[in-house]
Design brief:
The protein is mainly alpha-helical and 109 residues long. Helix content is 61%, strand content 0%. It starts with a helix and ends in a 36-residue tail after the last helix.
Length: 109
């Protein structure tokens, strides 16, 4: 029992000391800036948590839509579709029209 009373007394003294420090924290130089920064950080953290919580339902909707799309496309939708590519050994001209040689300059009729 004696140990329990000592623990309670110690905790009471520690709590009192903490209250004194919190009460005098504004007397320290730069402490107000620190307290204001901590308050601002708390607000920003709460806002970030709120935004992250709003993303969870959106992720669930996207997952459901992806599953629906897979069902609509069929089984082959997950793998890339292989498209045959033409192999060329020489470069082809950009236009598809056959080229005709230019006419030599001369008298026009």
């Amino acid at each position: 029992m004696a140990q329990t009373n000592k623990d309670k007394d110690f905790m009471t003294r520690l709590a009192d000391r903490g209250e004194q420090v919190v009460g005098r924290i504004t007397d320290f130089p730069g402490a107000k800036t620190l307290v204001d920064s901590m308050a601002s950080l708390t607000k920003q953290l709460n806002e970030t948590q709120r935004r992250l919580r709003s993303l969870d339902p959106l992720e669930k909707r996207v997952t459901a839509l992806e599953k629906r799309l897979e069902k609509m496309e069929g089984k082959g939708s997950t793998a890339k579709r292989a498209t045959p590519r033409k192999k060329t050994s020489t470069a082809k001209p950009a236009s598809s029209k056959p080229r005709t040689p230019p006419k030599p300059p001369g008298p026009s009729s």
